[in-house]
Amino acid sequence: MDRVNRDELIRRYAAGERNFSGVNLEGDLSGIDLSGADFSGNKLLSKRNQKYLKDINKTKENRNYT
Fold first, then answer.
1. 3-state DSSP call for residue 43?
2. How many structural domains are present in the chain?
3. Residue 4 three-state SS
4. Strands 43-44 and 24-25, how do they pair?
5. Range of the domain at 22
6. Tens digits of per-residue pLDDT, 47-65?
7. What is the pLDDT of residues 18-41, one digit of tens each?
């Protein structure tokens, strides 16, 4: 599994990548706009990141139902 830190995630997202399924995320991800990114199957290394990505997924689900 790929291990990705905050800076690498930002770089890859800015380059257009949206599929981050199965990667291990490191660092604080709060405050980063990751709209449209797929984080399914991730191993998150902090509770803060788990909550943050859960909130992103809820927002994504709500947009799909409007």
1. strand
2. 1
3. strand
4. parallel
5. 3-64
6. 666 666 666 666 555 555 5
7. 998 888 888 888 888 888 888 877
